[in-house]
Amino acid sequence: QYRLVSFLTGKARRLRQAKEEAQAEVEAYKRERERQYRENEAKILGSKGDMEKKIAISTQAKIEELNHSVAANKEKAVKRLLSLVCNIKPELHENYTASLVVAR
């Protein structure tokens, strides 16, 4: 009976030790995966910051180009609008002339 008890306690000890070793392996694997994740996250977020800078520079260049275009064509556009607005040709509305024909 003593051998059985000592066998069971030895087996329980080995099982406990195996469980602890497995837990340690799991923790080590988890730490490694978290480290890899943080590295990848830093790469992605770093490139995201670079893309934001490139987009901001590109946007600023386009805004400056549009401002230059507005400055160059503003006078021409205002003259065109004024010529269209001031070029008035008074005419009778088509419905008004039709009502004159019907009334006769």
TrEMBL record:
Coiled coil: 5-39
One example GO MF annotation: ATP hydrolysis activity
GO aspect biological process, one term: synaptic vesicle lumen acidification
InterPro entries in the record: V-ATPase_G
Key words of the record: Coiled coil, Hydrogen ion transport, Ion transport, Transport
Top-level taxon of origin: Eukaryota
GO annotation, cellular component aspect: presynapse; vacuolar proton-transporting V-type ATPase, V1 domain
Family: Belongs to the V-ATPase G subunit family.
Function text: Subunit of the V1 complex of vacuolar(H+)-ATPase (V-ATPase), a multisubunit enzyme composed of a peripheral complex (V1) that hydrolyzes ATP and a membrane integral complex (V0) that translocates protons. V-ATPase is responsible for acidifying and maintaining the pH of intracellular compartments and in some cell types, is targeted to the plasma membrane, where it is responsible for acidifying the extracellular environment.
Subunit text: V-ATPase is a heteromultimeric enzyme made up of two complexes: the ATP-hydrolytic V1 complex and the proton translocation V0 complex.
Full protein name: V-type proton ATPase subunit G
Taxonomic source organism: Paralvinella palmiformis
